[in-house]
Amino acid sequence: MAATISLLRVLYDAKETRVWRVILESLICGGLSLSASSIIKWMDWPEGLSVAAGGMIGFLGVTAIREFALKFIGKKVETL
C-alpha cells in the first residue's frame, strides 16, 4: 500500500523526474510500512491498522517521515 501510494504521489507531483528516485522513494516507503506493521503487531493493536499506516506513510513520503522523526528524537534528547 505504501509503495503504491508513494509511487502515485511522486508521479502526480512531478517534482522528481528521475526513474530511480521514484522507485527508491516507493521502496523506502514500503520498508517503513513493513516496520510500522511490525510495531503494530508488537503493540497488539488491530492488524487492519497496518494498511492505514502504510497509506499514511505512502502519502506523507520519506522526507516528511524523516523530518518528524528527527523532531521527535530531538525533543527526547533535550529532555535528558
What class, by secondary structure content?
mainly alpha
* Multimer state: single chain
Strand percentage: under 5%
- What is the helix tally? 3
Main sheet properties: none
Helix content: over 70%
Characterization of the model:
The chain has about 80 residues and is mostly helical. It has helices at about 1-15, 20-40, 50-80. The chain has one domain. It is built from 3 helices and no strands.
SSE map:
Layout: H1 2-13, H2 19-42, H3 49-79
Helix pairs in contact: 1-2, 1-3, 2-3
Task: Pick out its properties.
single chain; 80 residues; mainly alpha; 3 helices; flat
Concise synopsis of the structure shown:
The protein is mainly α and 80 residues long. Helix content is 84%, strand content 0%.
